[in-house]
Amino acid sequence: MEDEVRSFGLKVPLLDLQAQYASIRGDVLAAMTRVCDTQQFILGPEVEQLEGELGSALGVRAAIGVSSGTDALLVAMMALGIGPGDEVITPTFSFFATAGCVSRLGARPVFVDVDPDTLMIDAAAVRAALSPRTRAIVPVHLFGLCADMDPILEAARPGGVAVVEDAAQALGATYKGRAAGALGTVACFSFFPSKNLGAYGDAGVVTTEDEALARRVRLLRMHGAEPKYHHREVGGNFRLDALQAAVLRVKLPHLARWNEQRRANAARYRLLFERFGLLDRVRLPAEPPGRTHIYHQYVVRVPNRDAVRQHLATRQVGTDVYYPVPFHRQECFASLAHPADAFPHADAAAAEVLALPIYPELTADQQEHVVRSIGEALA
Ligand SMILES: *Cc1c(COP(=O)(O)O)cnc(C)c1O
To answer: Which residue, among 257, 330, 258, has the nearest Cα to 92 in the 3D structure?
Structure first.
């Protein structure tokens, strides 16, 4: 009874950016003022300094600031020379950009199923999907957990196939002690405002150890011009702007602590689901040994997901579904003609996944309210 009184009237949004903003507002406004005072808005010293700071944080030679996570994927694949006639292997269960970029370059996305426990790309399925046309594999570090990279890298090596990490959700995640973004041929991050490190608009970065590839990304980011007005190849405008870089530089030093808070919240959810006796009905996110999950999203699996979600809404608990429709069921990919039952694990996940609030400032009372409300829905 006392518990119910405590949670009465509690609101738990899926994400609350205001709390974080309040804690860094002075520094953010000062940084934005600094940029405005220079009137230099495109690339320039702020972007270069951010690139240096991200490169050393991740332990990679090159970090190239770009206009979004989607553009990071696009320009990385352009730099690898991917185009018509090529195949690129992606998991069928991810955010749309992972596969959309492949199609935009005229290449063919080849979907594979995910591991039923981690929801990450399945290495055995990748091996089965390799063909002489395969030019790249795109493991996605979904929700902030690294894909199992060693078997993917092993599968890629003999054919000289590139491994493009979609690390959009995984800044700060590690795999066997190494950072997401330092594991493949090239990696792509997003700073979309809701990501663990969020800009105040669109932004992204490409990271790589390969200096030649980094040079190509830099060139393509500026319409392939070198020197200016002399175009060796067709690139695009994939530049990061200085205001976003300045905001990101304020936030980057806090990221490790924010990620730790997300991890602590995840640990607390585990205790709460146990305490409420729900572990037989709610499947919690896996955290395999050797990988640090940074919980960009806290995604559980529940039966009757849509009904649970509706009940949570009545209890003022914000949730979302990442992702309700796998790539092989998207209308725009219908011409790729996959058999309806080709990807059972992704289909099962799409029907059951539910993202719960996990942002760093979430309180213990709010988490208890979330878990109690799920218990009500499943009773
Ligand atoms: C967010 C995201 C992207 C795209 O990033 P944008 O900055 O929104 O363009 C790509 N892949 C995954 C897995 C993402 O979560």
So the answer is: 330
